[in-house]
């Protein structure tokens, strides 16, 4: 019995879609047309392409799914050097002379049906062959991009390409020489494409993958991150963005013939669609939401009232400094869970905040307190600087250069504002306080602005993060949150400058005030507080009252005889 299934066909680069019906077990493809179909475990599919043009030298077939693996193979029997399995799998078909038909096989090992999108692309003898000089992976010619990720970075790897050649001709040797007539003249452009934020649907992924399969579309839609030569290692790292869909592709270019070919694009969300801890559906821990919400409430208060409530601001600054360094320390030295990290960080930050307040209360050294305030503002400004494309310059991939430059920018801020400390303090209140609100929003809703400081934290925690490119998407949510951040910062700064006009720049030394008040009470007998007993006597009196509560009551009546 034949089973009929619906199949969708779409012209590449167009909006026209045609529904056709195919018999299960055989799928006919056309060059340059996307196909949407479903693969089932009991029904392996045979795919075929007819009427191949004589000027086509090789074909690249690729099939994509969101997170379930599919397999494409040259033969019905799966062999490691003749098949590829993954969410983005491709094969290169080197055509023989007079060959006009091509056959291959598709399947899945999963239990659930898998929705797929596939396409065939054709190339001529002048075009370079992606993966034509593969020595690392299983396929003889491997056009696939292999992707690995963790919390810190996402790394893509691919096999070197070879020069194109005509049908029936032996391929050029890969390592025979390094002159301009060999594959060493080829260059590799690495591209990155961001999916819409907060959208993990399969339809959105397959729709946007259509923009990343052919060379013209990749160049028109994606961001070129780096260009590699044949002498460079065919591996590139990027900052991981959990929950954010990203598509990567590589275009190999022959500068001598000015021809190009695209590899098979790979995609990732830097999280797992399987249920469990760290899955895409469970991003945004409750502990993070509680921590950053409380932090944002304090920051919001500091944004508008920090300079007036000087000790509260000092607690906020001390909390940031101690919490940041303590989190780095315990994360690098201990394997405890994230929630415990966050609790300990909150405790350590509170201790740091109280310590800075105590230093100000006892010693009253304004320069030390303002140095801490200026360094926090400098840290954020330095983080913003490296959040721009400047941070992806090759020179800053060296940790020594990066940290020296980062520290210099951070230290420059308090130095520049040395002569106007009140302005520095109010600026810090407005900018840092409002950014805490951005971090809180980032714990509930995906936003790229949280990576301003998170990228610096990742670099401090992971020794390999220096090689990662830190590009992030900047979409509608980010523009809205950026506008809110700017509005809060400007409002807080303006309000505090107007309110503090005509007032003393900073409050007086608390310890000196306390000593003066105590001496005044001792010498001024007309002051009612003069008659208040010292603190030690008051505490002793309170303890005596508490002891009386636990003493037995004396029985009523006379105990001694009445003396007459």
- Strands, count: 20
**Quick check: average pLDDT?**
87
Radius of gyration computed on alpha carbons: 34 Å
What would the principal axes of the Cα set say about the shape? elongated
CATH architecture of the largest domain: Sandwich
Q: Could you explain how this protein is built, in words?
A:
The protein is built from twelve helices and 20 strands. It has helices spanning 202-209, 215-221, 286-305, 310-333, 338-363, 366-387, 399-416, 421-444, 451-461, 476-499, 510-523, 535-549; strands at residues 4-11, 17-23, 26-29, 33-39, 45-49, 58-64, 70-73, 83-86, 88-94, 102-107, 114-123, 145-149, 153-158, 187-194, 223-229, 235-239, 246-254, 259-262, 266-268, 468-469. A hairpin with a 3-residue loop joins strand 12 (145-149) and strand 13. The protein folds into two domains: 26-169 and 182-268, Immunoglobulins (Immunoglobulin-like), CATH 2.60.40; 286-500, no CATH class. The strands form four sheets. Strands 2-1-4-11-6-9 form a six-stranded antiparallel β-sheet, with no helix packed on it. By secondary structure, it is an alpha+beta fold. 38% of the residues lie in helices and 21% in strands. The model is unreliable at 1-9 and 13-23 (pLDDT under 50).
In summary, what is this structure?
With 564 residues, the protein is of the alpha+beta class.
Topology:
Blueprint: E1 4-11, E2 17-23, E3 26-29, E4 33-39, E5 45-49, E6 58-64, E7 70-73, E8 83-86, E9 88-94, E10 102-107, E11 114-123, E12 145-149, E13 153-158, E14 187-194, H1 202-209, H2 215-221, E15 223-229, E16 235-239, E17 246-254, E18 259-262, E19 266-268, H3 286-305, H4 310-333, H5 338-363, H6 366-387, H7 399-416, H8 421-444, H9 451-461, E20 468-469, H10 476-499, H11 510-523, H12 535-549
Parallel strand pairs: 3-5, 16-20
Antiparallel strand pairs: 1-2, 1-4, 4-11, 5-10, 6-9, 6-11, 7-8, 7-10, 12-13, 13-16, 14-15, 14-17, 17-18, 17-19
């Amino acid at each position: 019995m034949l089973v009929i299934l619906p199949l969708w066909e779409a012209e590449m680069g167009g909006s026209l879609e045609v529904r056709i019906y195919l018999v299960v077990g055989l799928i006919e493809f056309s060059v340059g047309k996307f196909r949407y179909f479903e693969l089932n475990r009991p029904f392996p599919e045979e795919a075929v392409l007819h009427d191949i043009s004589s000027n086509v030298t090789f074909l690249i077939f690729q099939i994509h799914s969101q997170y379930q693996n599919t397999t494409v193979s040259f033969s019905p029997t799966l062999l490691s050097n003749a098949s590829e399995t993954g969410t983005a799998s491709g094969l290169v078909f080197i055509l023989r002379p007079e060959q006009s038909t091509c056959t291959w096989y598709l399947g899945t090992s999963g239990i659930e049906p898998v929705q797929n999108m596939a396409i065939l692309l054709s190339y001529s003898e002048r075009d370079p062959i992606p993966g034509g000089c593969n020595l690392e992976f299983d396929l003889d010619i491997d056009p696939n991009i292999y992707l690995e990720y963790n919390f810190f970075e996402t790394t893509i790897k691919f096999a070197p390409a070879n020069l194109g050649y005509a049908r029936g001709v032996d391929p050029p040797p890969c390592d025979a020489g390094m002159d301009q007539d060999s594959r060493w003249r080829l260059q590799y452009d690495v591209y990155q494409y961001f999916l819409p934020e907060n959208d993990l649907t399969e339809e959105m992924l397959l729709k946007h993958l259509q923009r990343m399969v052919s060379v013209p579309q990749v160049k028109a839609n994606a961001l070129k991150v780096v260009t590699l030569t044949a002498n460079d290692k065919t591996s590139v790292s990027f900052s991981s963005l959990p929950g954010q869909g990203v598509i990567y592709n590589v275009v190999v270019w022959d500068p001598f013939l000015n021809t190009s070919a695209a590899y098979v694009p790979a995609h990732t969300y830097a999280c797992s669609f399987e249920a469990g801890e760290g899955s895409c559906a469970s991003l945004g821990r409750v502990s993070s939401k509680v921590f950053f919400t409380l932090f944002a409430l304090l920051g919001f208060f500091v944004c508008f009232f920090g300079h007036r409530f000087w000790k509260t601001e000092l607690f906020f600054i001390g909390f940031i400094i101690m919490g940041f360094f303590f989190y780095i320390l315990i994360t690098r030295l201990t394997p405890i869970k994230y929630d415990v990290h966050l609790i300990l960080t909150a405790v350590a930050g509170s201790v740091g905040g109280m310590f800075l307040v105590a230093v100000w209360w006892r010693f009253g050294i304004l320069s030390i307190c303002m140095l801490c305030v200026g360094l926090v503002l400098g840290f954020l400004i330095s983080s913003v600087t490296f959040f721009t494309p400047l941070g992806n310059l090759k020179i800053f991939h060296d940790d020594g250069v990066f940290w020296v430059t980062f520290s210099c920018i951070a230290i420059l801020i308090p130095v520049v504002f040395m002569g106007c400390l009140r302005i520095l303090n109010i600026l810090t209140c407005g900018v840092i306080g409002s950014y805490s609100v951005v971090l809180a929003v980032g714990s509930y809703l995906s936003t790229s602005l949280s990576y301003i400081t998170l990228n610096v934290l990742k670099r401090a925690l992971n020794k390999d993060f220096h090689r990662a490119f830190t590009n992030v998407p900047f979409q509608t949510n980010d523009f809205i949150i950026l506008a809110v951040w700017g509005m809060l910062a400007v409002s807080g700064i303006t309000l505090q400058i107007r309110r503090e006009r005509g007032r003393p720049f900073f409050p007086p030394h608390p310890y000196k005030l306390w000593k003066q008040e105590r001496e005044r009470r001792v010498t001024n007998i007309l002051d009612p507080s003069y008659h208040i007993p010292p603190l030690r006597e008051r505490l002793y009196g309170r303890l005596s009252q508490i002891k009386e509560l636990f003493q037995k009551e004396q029985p009523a009546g006379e105990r001694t005889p009445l003396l007459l």
